[in-house]
Amino acid sequence: MTASSGAASPVDHAPAPTWRRVLSHADFEIRGLVRNGEQLLLTLVLPMLVLVVLGRTSLVDLGPDRMAVVAPGVLALAVMSTSFTSQAISTAFDRRAGVLRLLATTPLGRSGLVAGKVVAVLAVEAAQVLLLAGVAVALGWRPTGVAGAALVLVLGTAAFVALALLLAGTVRAEAVLAGANLLWVLLLVGGGIVVPVDLLPGPLAALAGLLPSGALGEGLRAAFDGQGIAWGPVLVLVIWTGAASTLVARTFRWT
Amino acid sequence: MSLVASGLVVRYGQHEALAGVDLALEPGRLTALLGPNGAGKTTLVECAVALRRPDAGTLRVLDRSPDDPALRTRVGVMLQDGGLPLAAPAGQVLRHLAALHARPRDLGELTERLGLTRVLRTSVRRLSGGERQRVALAAALVGRPEVLLLDEPTAGLDPQARLAVRELVGELRADGTTILLTTHLTEEAAALADHVVVLDSGLVRAAGSPASLMGAEQGLRIGIAGNAEVLRADLQRLLKVPVLASAGLLELRATPTPALLHKVTGWALQHDVQILEVAVGHRTLEEVVLTLTGRSLR
Prior knowledge:
Distance between the termini of chain A: 33 Å
Number of domains of chain A: 1
Radius of gyration of chain B: 23 Å
Low-confidence stretches of chain A: 1-8
Low-confidence stretches of chain B: none
CATH architecture of the largest domain in chain B: 3-Layer(aba) Sandwich
Number of domains of chain B: 2
Number of helices of chain A: 10
Oligomer: heterodimer
């Protein structure tokens, strides 16, 4: 090293501006998600399969306008895959490998880490929504109320990212891998995310409406159907976000 | 002082990893923290970067609390487990870490210096142990830290890589970086450090310059087959100089004159003691540490 690159004046020790640190981390996370084939299966391939199978066949009785039910549900499923399943798994393995420890010693900081993850999740979701909605429109979907749907998507993302961090920050990585995938399947089948809550059997219907999956699914279906913002599901998502974030702040272990 | 610890205590359950450590790092100097495995070296480094909270005592880094965000650009750390994201290519990891600083070190120069240019596109998982170590070192250096904490930086490196790392650390020190380096390699500490702190079982056993620790006085060390403890008193009575004994080694605290050597070999002949090794001069740092921390495995 030359003298110019050694310990220098305090001016040299400024961190990069916050937005650049957050974007750099978001970029790093997105590259990680794209690199990871299994995550891509969960976030894109399986939702696409559900969209085409439920949209083009009558395996499940979804009423006369199948796409109005299936398309919002598949978008909700894709959002849940990215913000919950894949985020929980990647964060848990980062924690086990000591990556979170390392990042905690850098100017990124803990808030920058979370902000970077949220930006990465939103960016991946934007790509998912464009792709899946494009295919759904090609299959005959005619959505309205896009602004209200966007609000529900962001709230659902917040709730699921908080839940992902809650799981990743307290449970060991292998258990998170198994648990997050199992939850994905359970919520797909009975969580009110793709199959509307009122088509589920009695007690499950009552429960699913209170789950973040059911709230996200119902909220999106209502918004895209031109019914405006469904405040019930919005309230459910806000409560889940608040409760999970509070628990994350108290229980998250960085090592 | 760049880092000051006083009465630092860290407990893991019943076990005290640090049992009241006092330590001061002088600005621009290289301090080697030397000690066997489990001495508490890593715990101390973790406290300095706020990864671990002390149970008692105080710790200040650049006159700030270790969890002060302002330190994240001024303190570089190389942790023992690295903590590098395994799936990402090494170059991507380093570029990300560099982007967190307003004026990072030139990555091209740094990676070339550490022999990493050819592995920048390789995922961290597929790097050799030594390559990973060097990526972790580059990660610690990328923000031009004023204080550099290196936890076993040369562990697992081949001789060439060890040399490269030592040269780089030496240059950083010459540039005025304050460095704390933990190691259990005594010759590394003796060669690099301005100041050596010997840590064992969570306590500082000795501190000083390598020369002062090794002692100014000359001595004579004799490795023997047989029980040194039993023979020590006999030899001391005969020679009338202080004799220390530890497993297989007798240490005479006296100027090693030809007459003294002659007496020792005469004594060995008379008692039929087989001499395996004779060494004259200063004690090595290794011997100092073994004397301070004991010779048996724990």
